[in-house]
Amino acid sequence: MSQDTVQKVGAIIVAAGASRRMDGVDKLFALIGGQPLLARATRPFQDCPRVHRIVIIVSREKEKLCRSLVTGEGWSKVSDICLGGERRQDSVVAGLKRLTDCHWLIIHDGARPLVTIELIENGLAAAEETGAAAAAVPVTDTIKLVDDDRIVRKTPPRQNLWAVQTPQVFRSAIIAEAYSHARGEVTDDASLVEQMGGRVKLYPGSYATIKVTTPDDLALAEVLWQRYER
Q1: Which CATH architecture has domain 3-227?
Q2: 19: Cβ–Cβ under 8 A, 6 or more apart, which residues?
């Protein structure tokens, strides 16, 4: 992807969650390979030559710790640390407002510490086709569609099912328009593009790029880091 095509690339690290399922553990600053989880999730964007600016979204309670982390790491690309909103989409919108001069926007969950530069660059390449791309992996389990009483109504073909991850990459105009029409609770940025009729390209993610939501996830992330240590 040429620099003329890319123009400015901005990254939003969404890390304003409350860690409700972590049994009191502050997952953002829990250690993965001896480094805070948030550092692991952010450093690949700092090191990626195609990323120009980074905005980190955190809760008010974590703002001071995050600023200390950024200062200590010397991350030159982190232009803003801003407070998240009540919902995930409110946090993303806060980031979008800080990156209005960027042509491409990458949105990444701060709770996915094993992201790589390769995944970031592959996402940028994939997004050239449709203006929107999301990392994903094929589903390995059989999925059941159930009703409110958990009675199985349908078993969709597994070969057509993919588990969507982050990073997700968008032309800034596309994701800004998608969020301007957002209604209700949103947990996946790409789904908003789909809702307004846009096309989202899936590109190969990694089964190692897990999202840490429980203490078991944190333990698994440590094992995976040791296995794939860079």
Answers
A1: Alpha-Beta Complex (3.90)
A2: 25, 26, 27, 28
CA-CA distance, 223 to 217, in Å (whole number)? 10
Token couple for 16: 């304003």
Q: Which two tokens stand for residue 162?
A: 């993919």
The stretches in the chain having pLDDT less than 70 are 1-6, 19, 23-24, 230
- β-pairing verdict for 31-32 and 35-36: antiparallel
How many residues can be counted in the chain? 230
Helix axes 215-227, 37-47, angle to 10 degrees: 50
Position 2 scores a pLDDT of: 47
Residue 42 DSSP one-character state:
H
With contact defined as beta carbons under 8 Å apart, do 92 and 14 qualify?
yes
Q: Average pLDDT, whole number, for the chain?
A: 92
pLDDT digits (tens, 9 = 90+) for 98-134: 999 999 999 999 999 999 999 999 999 999 999 999 9
Residues 37, 19: Cα–Cα separation, whole Å: 13
Q: Which residues pair with 31 in a beta bridge?
A: 36
**Count of C-beta atoms within a 10 Å radius of residue 139:** 14
Find, among 106, 22, 114, the residue nearest to 56 by Cα: 106
Q: Do residues 35 and 129 make contact, with C-beta atoms less than 8 angstroms apart?
A: no
Alpha-carbon gap, residue 109 to 102, rounded angstroms: 19
